[in-house]
Amino acid sequence: MSLPLELYSLCTPNGQKVAVALEEMGLAYNSHRIDINKGDQFSDEFLAINPNGKIPAIIDPECSHNGEPLTIMESGAILIYLAEKTSMFLPTDKVARNCVIQWLMWQMGGVGPMFGQFGYFSVYAPRKSIVIEHAKERYKKEVLRLLGVLDRQLSRCEFVAGDDLSIADFAIMPWVVCLEYFYHAEQELQLETFTYVSAWVNKLKDRPAVQRGMVVCE
Q1: Comparing 148 with 68, which gets the higher pLDDT?
Q2: Which of 9, 22, 151, 200 has a CA-to-CA distance to 40 between 20 and 30 Å?
């Protein structure tokens, strides 16, 4: 019997993407809530797992490194590790695999940072500042551009990297969902105009494993 993975996370887009993958892959795991609002990520115990002090992180007790259970930080790296561990949601064909990894990196380098900055300056930053209004408009423009890129891609294929569900979908979808549920920007961004994105999100949200993964470590 396989030993369960240990997931250290919170119900944020970066945490959700890994939890969704774990559920879709049918892997056994224990979840540990890391409350970033209380500073749990800076505890000695968590920093021993992820020296960068960010969620999520996992421990695989069945794989060792220097005699210790393997710890993995960074959500994109975790998704690739889990996909390779299970031989699921990451094609072995070089072209198809490269396509999935391209879109995963697109999320890591573009969607996550830009959507996150939009949310910060729209929701969390102090108001009534010319600098903050400029920042909000800057990141709003970039979010709209990225949504347009995603919408065009999804107009050509069923899932982000082609006709098969992949870790790229798991990585990107929670960030799109957070625009509405965390940042309350559905009307401001006119999300309904990105028709292919909306259809794709709804299709994924209908999957039971996705539903379970999206609420892990709430």
Answers
A1: 148
A2: 22
